Amino acid sequence: MTKGSVYIATSLDGYIAKADGDIDWLNNIPPPAKEEGDMGFAAYLASVDCMVMGRNTFDKVLSFGKDVWPYGTLKVVVWSRTMKPDDIPDYRRDTVSCSALPPKELMQELQDNGHKKAYIDGGVTVQEFLKAGMVQEICLSLAPILLGSGIKLFPTDGPQFNLKLKESMSYSNGMVQSTYEVLPNEE
């Protein structure tokens, strides 16, 4: 099965966005020191061969403007029950498609199409793929900010997940990035 991997930043209290979806708080975090590069994002993108993102995340990235697309030519599947192919802007149709398949079926389809590692992004999408057992790795960057409320990254009503720390790094901008292996549930 295609491996599911998450690379995401949260506030120290576990929020990926404010309640209205605003992520401008990330702009308040200074960039890391020049020698620290991009905190591994380019290397991470090079390690995946496709991406599954939620509709809200897709719409948020589109709001940055036509010329801002951080994923290059990476195949992106927007996971949505309501999105139709005509909802994808013409200038993104060469690399973006949409699907409403359940997580396991979508990951199987990605595997059948030759994909080995999928970047899973977006709050609900990460939660649902995690609950379905389709996330095997999480790279979590904790930002030195407390939002107090907003959109949580991890489910508050789901099963317990055990993780194994693979590595952890701190950066000059106060970010702490940890990569975990998601261990199989013993249910």
TrEMBL record:
GO molecular function, one term: 5-amino-6-(5-phosphoribosylamino)uracil reductase activity
Pfam families named in the record: RibD_C
GO term, biological process aspect, one: riboflavin biosynthetic process
Coiled-coil ranges per UniProt: none
SUPFAM superfamilies named among the record's database cross-references: Dihydrofolate reductase-like
Domain Bacterial bifunctional deaminase-reductase C-terminal residue range list: 8-176
Source taxon at top rank: Eukaryota
Annotated PANTHER family: 2,5-DIAMINO-6-RIBOSYLAMINO-4(3H)-PYRIMIDINONE 5'-PHOSPHATE REDUCTASE, DIHYDROFOLATE REDUCTASE FAMILY PROTEIN (AFU_ORTHOLOGUE AFUA_8G06820)
Protein's recorded name: RibD C-terminal domain
Naturally occurring in which organism (per UniProt): Seminavis robusta
